[in-house]
Records
---
Amino acid sequence: VQLVESGGGLVQAGGSLRLSCAASGFTFDDYTIGWFRQAPGQEREGVSSISSSDGSTYYEDSVKGRFTISCDNAKNTVYLQMNSLKPEDTAVYYCAAGEFYTDHGEGMDYWGKGTLVTVSS
């Protein structure tokens, strides 16, 4: 079982990035996929989630209206489109898969290694 994030990088404030999370060794169909982030010196926090079975989505207030999560079950890949990025969005972003989403990630069983997003002011 493996989750691999990609798409991170350096972007100026106001810019956009699209993160990808590719899964192998299992299928998304029965899982909730979550995106989380951890900034330097801070605890990990939830960002967004999507249910692969019905497509329902959830966003934390900090990213609502700016980030969009989507899932391509055929490719076993989840995306996080991030627009209007702010310096406070700088963090390592992780995707995870599990039974349910909480903002601390307790319901997640599988985790990727993360991809770094840096937003300059």
Note: The two ends are 37 Å apart (CA to CA).
---
Amino acid sequence: QVHLQESGPGLVKPSQTLSLTCTVSGASITTELYYWNWIRQPPGKRLEWVGAIGYSGTTYYKSSLKSRTSISRDTSKNQFTLQLSSVTPEDTAVYYCAGGLSTGWGVRDEYEYWGQGTRITVAS
């Protein structure tokens, strides 16, 4: 059984860097053809794909967030991490990590595995 668990600070101040980690169990993040994604859902809005890291370590980012986003991984811990810099209140959302054969979609059915989500609030 594959399990994904997000961990993060809950509250971040404007202009700071948000850092979230997704710990994966039951599957390896180096499994061929799989992508490991970050997806968020702001209050009252649709799911929004943020970025991903592929099984080979290649990274992919939403174009509008690319300048502020960095995704990395630690294969020894089977974790991948999102860093989002210069956050504003518009970055307030529930952040999910998700894995599967797809990437780039803000659609729940496109991914096999989901974490439960972690709520991030950007406020001073």
Note: The longest strand covers residues 18-25.
---
Amino acid sequence: HVQLVESGGESVQAGGSLRLSCVASGATQDIGCMGWFRQVPGLEREGVAAINWIGGNPYYRDSVKGRFTVSVDNAKSTLYLQMNSLEPEDTAMYYCAVGRSWCRPSLSQADFPIWGQGTQVTV
């Protein structure tokens, strides 16, 4: 199976930038889609962005379009989330996740059976 390790979360001022990374190891040949989700305590986990492991084609939730960019480096088995113009509402635990099928625009948790441990972003 696939293992995921996130990094890059920290405290940053509003308007600042961060780049999150997620390194995948193990059975990476089984990866179809990789995504970023976030969760605030007491609220539902929400999809932020996703991209196909092969071929790209990113999807974003409306509130981050134009500010966040998701990308994948297959050679490094790493997923990235570049976050610019950060807002206090972006504060959350950010999770990397893997699905075995192609990404869908819905960014549904149900499509992602494998999860990392999370990295905290505080704005």
Note: The beta strands are 2-7, 18-26, 33-39, 46-52, 56-60, 68-73, 78-83, 92-99, 114-115, 119-121.
---
Amino acid sequence: QVQLVESGGGLVQPGGSLRLSCAASGITLDYYSISWFRQAPGKEREGVSCISNRDGRAYYADAVKGRFTISRDNAKNTMYLQMNNLKPEDTAVYYCATELFGCSDRYDRWGQGTQVTVSS
């Protein structure tokens, strides 16, 4: 059974940091592009970041560029999203996901999500 399980969300003040983790089982993340996307109440799903299995590069949405860092640990079959200098507009449910080819926001599988709330 394939599972992606996120953790690390929570409540943080503006300017703070969180590190999200996504542990995979039943699949080998190394074969896929890995992505994070988010969805805020009343808003459409938004791709946040991705590491492409085509070129190995990391891609970021303009809204998070310079503040978020995506990474993967193939030995642990886990992906991460380091989020620094968080802003209230980053509040959303964050999901990890896999993509079959490149980074195109066409997600193959995703987890159950973890809530991130940025508020003073």
Note: The chain has a mean pLDDT of 96.
